[in-house]
């Protein structure tokens, strides 16, 4: 089956929806570094006091239902997160915001539901790339950088992941961005995405999160 690559063009936004003139996109590299989110040069000052800065994804395609999520994912596994390694870079000291950030989460495969490569087995430890970084010091305040309010996996917890092999590093990537990771134990909506408690989500964020909830319900029922 042909691997699906989701290309995204991202505008830098505060979670409140205030725009900053930066851009972010997912890229494929020729070296062995992992696929990751990268941002163009940004010189704006961050004067907002919020602890979460979310990049807004513009995707060429995303799964619209569970069948499509499964068909575009060569690998579907249940995992438990063990550890993580976070990378945050700036082009220069003049940049207020990082120009590159991601987390490589180390997970152990506990169940394989689909593996078109036939190379994985239960007990394997793999690295999964997540476009999020926490406790990033910006303008003297520790902040979380993320894409579409994505919340990274928590150490010790189990998840269903929809993956493909990375073409630019020894790791795996989520096939459909934030629609590709689901806790195996049911969690309330408020725990599924990152958000400031006093902010109102925009319509697009709400639609994405509603779709996520629908998929989550189907996935949990299918794994009972």
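Q: What amino acid sequence fits the structure above?
A:
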């Amino acid at each position: 089956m042909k691997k699906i690559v989701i290309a995204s063009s991202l505008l830098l936004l505060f979670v409140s929806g205030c725009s900053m003139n930066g851009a972010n996109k997912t890229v494929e590299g020729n070296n062995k570094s992992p696929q990751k989110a990268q941002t163009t040069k940004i010189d704006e000052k961050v004067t907002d006091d919020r602890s979460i800065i979310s990049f807004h994804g513009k995707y060429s395609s995303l799964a619209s239902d569970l069948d499509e999520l499964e068909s575009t994912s060569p690998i579907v596994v249940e995992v438990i997160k063990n550890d993580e390694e976070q990378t945050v870079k700036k082009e220069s000291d003049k940049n207020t915001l990082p120009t590159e950030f991601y987390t490589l989460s180390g997970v152990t495969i506990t169940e394989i539901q689909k593996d078109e490569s036939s190379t994985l087995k239960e007990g394997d430890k793999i690295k999964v790339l997540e476009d999020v970084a926490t406790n990033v010091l910006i303008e003297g305040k520790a902040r979380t950088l993320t894409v579409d309010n994505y919340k990274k996996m928590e150490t010790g917890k189990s998840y269903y992941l929809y993956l493909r092999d990375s073409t630019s590093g020894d790791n795996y990537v989520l096939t459909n961005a934030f629609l590709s990771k689901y806790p195996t134990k049911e969690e309330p909506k408020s725990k599924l995405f990152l958000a400031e408690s006093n902010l109102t989500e925009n319509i697009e964020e709400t639609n994405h999160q509603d779709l996520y909830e629908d998929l989550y319900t189907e996935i949990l029922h299918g794994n009972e």
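Q: And what stands out in the fold?
A: Confidence is low (pLDDT under 50) at residues 1-33, 35-44.
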